[in-house]
Amino acid sequence: MISSRRVLIASLSVVGALAGLALPAAASPSATATGNFTTQVVSFDVHETGGVAFAHEVDIDTYTGSLVGAATDTYTSRTVFANGSGGGHGTEVCNACTIGGRTGGYTAVFNFTIPAGGGNFTGTETFISGTGGLAGLHGGGSFQGDGITNTYSYSYHFDP
Fold it and tell me: How far apart, in whole angstroms, are the C-alpha atoms of residue 144 and residue 21?
């Protein structure tokens, strides 16, 4: 005859073993945030060498649409050539933005190009981390504009 104590111990052992096999939580479904943004230059320091302008710049991008908030862009490189073409890259940080109904902070990296003649810029942004309600934020997408009328389309999801 099996004692009730042995059954209890065996049952707890099975439950413990199965708990170790639990599947990880799934990421949220992907969604797309679209809208507009305006840019305000906070600081701009430029020097020229051999007809090429190199700038150190900090901007505030104010997002509207599916992404809402004011993010600080710090350029690690921004170059403009004599023909008006150029580009750059840097980091964007928002401490209080809302996306997908969640509010928190995020850090993203961006890069962009400007065609010869100085036409509209095009670029990409990639979310690399999130905090608060945006913890687990990943994704990114494209942005474009002329400095006055700027649009974005970012696909994103939240990892558990």
Answer: 46
pTM across the whole model:
0.80
CA distances from 128 to 24, 108, 134, 136 (A): 21, 5, 11, 9
Model confidence pLDDT, tens digit, residues 126-155: 999 999 999 999 999 999 999 888 999 999
Q: Is residue 106 within 8 Å of 134, Cβ to Cβ?
A: yes
Tokens linked to 35: 């809208």
Any idea which fold 32-131+139-158 has?
Answer: AOC barrel-like (2.40.350)
Give me the residue spans of the domains in the chain.
Answer: 32-131+139-158
Give the pLDDT of residue 143: 98
pLDDT for residue 51: 86
